[in-house]
Every structure is written in structure tokens, then in C-alpha cells.
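Much of what follows relies on a compact textual record of a protein's fold. With that in mind, consider the following protein and its fold in C-alpha cell form.
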Amino acid sequence: MKKAVLLLIFMTLTSFIDVADNVYICNSKGAKKYHLKEFCRGLGACKHEIIKVTLKQAKERGLDLCGWED
């Protein structure tokens, strides 16, 4: 029983970590923001491919969090 509860807790926590670590960006040289949601209204003007990257990769590109998601 304890193993099952621990496994459930582990799976729940790791699913939140995965969500928090991935963000969406417009794959263009002019991009300035990253987005927590794939369909954020801030991505509406993107004329390039929208890609999923890690938060670390987005910050390494110098991107900041979208103002719609502050």
C-alpha cells in the first residue's frame, strides 16, 4: 500500500515538473517572449513555427515571460 501511494505521489509531482519546464515560443529571430500555454493569445501574431522548448532554453535565448501570463 505504501509503495502504491508513493508511486502515485511521484507520478503526480513529476507531471507538474514536466509542465512547468516546457514553454512555447515563436521560432523567429525577433521573438522576445516565451509562453506557458501553446494557445496563448501572445502567440497569435507569430508568423513562424511555434515550438515547445524547455524553460532553460527559452531563457538562454534571452526570452521573458509573456505579459498575458504574468
Observations:
- The chain is about 35% helix and 20% strand.
- The helical segments are 2-21, 55-60.
- The CA atoms of residues 4 and 10 lie 10 Å apart.
- Residues 2-21 form the longest helix (20 residues).
